[in-house]
Design a protein that fits this description.
Bound molecules: iron/sulfur cluster
Helix content: 25-40%
Number of domains: 2
CATH superfamily of the largest domain: Aldolase class I
Mean pLDDT: 94
Oligomer: single chain
Strand content: 5-15%
Radius of gyration: 25 Å
CATH architecture of the largest domain: Alpha-Beta Barrel
Largest sheet: 10 strands, mixed
CATH class of the largest domain: Alpha Beta
Length: 503
């Protein structure tokens, strides 16, 4: 075994920037030394090298060193990270030391991080590994939330919808939303492969079956829910409730999703009609009856699921009905009410909340918060959005991501019905088409570059995705994942690890 010496070549990472950050030499210089004669190599096991050992060995092999290829570090679920680090060090050292390559024991910083996470026993195991991933710039577990879009087709045209609103014709890319796009349905074999991938990746705490249209229009939607449940995934299904007639309700209750998000956004027929301009006569009443009947059937069958989340996208037409909407939820016996401030896209501006409406919105919100003990619970996202409403603004994340990391790449991913995967709910393609398996994509070096760009978003705002979309767009000022991002910030803070989200 070789020990470190003045002559040993110390390899921090194959990335030149990391080499110099850690006081190492530039890669071309290291390559030159390796090629000009035998030199012992030392790889320090520090936090950004931990998951890079196979990549570093690969690089050394490219420089002509005959080395066996080790497995990547993979912590065991529900096991102590510090112990796993020790075991991994023993394994690679045993494998590589006969080849004049020494892997140093985990450094003090890495051990301290692992120990803090090991002591955070109240943090769910999957989230602990995601946090460890953010810190080490590696991925050890699947996303916490995965949006599976099953169709772009829709049977309504909500005024606030990015895609089907009568106002969406003014989108700069409106031409892309053509007939082919509108008739996209996810193919079942692709969906099943995706479900298998998510199961294998582990810890997908929420599979959200959604779409840019109405998921219940997919002819195999209930089979897909059932297949996801077979794979023991927690399933959330989105709908607008229009198609939930008796036949569909009975089928849904045979293998129910865990949560059913129903977007209604109005407490009265008149407001519903303002927001759904082409709706059929009596549609609001029908949706209300469908939901009431669903709740009653679930009670009769003594089922615990689906728990219903009634959704209101807050805009200028329904702002005065915020409290009435909560009462509608109570009347229907739903478990949760979710209020979501409408994203103020330029082409939807005619529907956005108006500044003079905001005090009344906050007032109603305060009232329904007090009612929670005896009625549906509020989904917490609105409390973060309300902070900005109190400042008379509707861009809830404002300029946050000009100064803070975007760590969405560790806890979320989305698949589109017309093919491809997205980094977040704002369309940013990590792959075009479904040719590549999601599992392979999620674990790839390529995906690592997306995650790293997000982590260092203030200096990587111009980074572009596969479809040419830049990382930082105006949607980052009303980030769809702001609440989850805050959750991981809080976790990191509670473990004393917040600084590592930055560096
Ligand atoms: S909208 Fe911007 S900040 Fe939010 S998750 Fe997407 S890239 Fe990150």
């Amino acid at each position: 075994m070789h020990s470190p010496s003045d002559d040993a070549l110390v390899l921090h990472s194959e990335e030149p920037a990391l080499q110099s950050q850690r006081g190492g030499r530039e890669l071309p210089e290291l390559a030159h030394r390796l090629r000009s004669g035998f030199v012992p190599v030392v790889i320090p096991l520090w936090r950004k090298n931990l998951a890079r050992i196979p990549a570093l060995i690969s690089w050394l092999r490219e420089q002509g060193r005959a080395l066996p290829m080790p497995e990547a570090f993979q912590p065991r679920p529900n096991h102590f990270l510090a112990e796993d680090l020790g075991a991994y060090h023993t394994y690679v050292q045993h494998l590589l030391s006969p080849h004049a390559l020494r892997v140093a024991p985990p450094d003090q910083e890495l051990l301290a991080i692992a120990s803090r996470l090991d002591h955070a026993t109240l943090v769910p195991a999957g989230d602990r590994l995601r946090l460890f991933g953010m810190i080490t710039e590696a991925v050890f577990v699947g996303p916490r939330v995965f949006h599976l879009d099953v169709t772009n087709a829709c049977n309504t045209n909500c005024l606030y919808c990015w895609f089907h609103s009568p106002l969406a014709g003014a989108r700069p890319d409106a031409a892309k939303l053509d007939r082919r796009w509108r008739n996209s349905f996810l193919e079942v074999p692709v969906a099943l492969q995706l479900l298998d991938d998510l199961r294998e990746l582990g810890s997908v705490e929420d599979l959200v079956i959604s779409g840019k249209g109405e998921p219940l229009l997919h002819p195999r939607i209930l089979d897909l829910v059932s297949e996801a449940k077979d794979r023991e995934l927690f399933v959330t299904l989105f709908t607008n409730g229009i198609l939930l007639d008796q036949v569909l309700r009975e089928r849904l209750l045979q293998r129910p999703p865990d949560l059913l998000y129903v977007s209604v956004s109005a407490a009265t027929p008149a407001t519903y009609r303002l927001l759904h301009r082409d709706c059929a006569e009596g549609e609001f009443e029908r949706v209300r009856a469908n939901l009431r009947a669903l709740g009653e059937s679930r009670e009769q069958l003594k089922l615990a699921t689906p728990r219903i989340v009634l959704v209101m996208v807050l805009n200028r037409y329904n702002a005065e009905e915020l409290e009435a909407f909560y009462e509608l939820g109570r009347e229907l016996g739903v478990a949760f009410v979710r209020y979501q401030v409408m994203a103020d896209e330029p082409y939807l501006r005619e529907a956005g909340l108006l500044a003079p409406q905001l005090p009344a919105v906050l007032e109603q919100l305060a009232k329904v918060e007090k009612k929670q003990g005896e009625g549906p619970r509020l989904v917490e996202n609105i409390s973060l959005q309300a902070v900005r409403l109190a400042e008379n603004q509707t861009d809830w994340s404002h300029h946050h991501f000009l100064h803070h990391p975007c760590n969405v790449g560790w806890f979320f991913a989305r698949s589109w019905a017309d093919g491809g995967y997205s980094f977040c709910c704002s369309p940013k393609a990590t792959a075009l088409g479904h040719d590549r398996s999601f599992k392979e994509l999620w674990q790839s070096e390529h995906y690592r570059s997306f995650r790293r760009a997000g982590k260092y978003i203030p200096s990587h705002a111009d980074f572009t995705f596969e479809d040419g979309t830049p990382l930082y767009t105006p949607i980052c000022n009303r980030c769809p994942h702001y609440e989850q991002m805050a959750y991981f910030d809080n976790l990191a803070r509670s473990c004393g690890l917040e600084e590592y989200l930055w560096r």
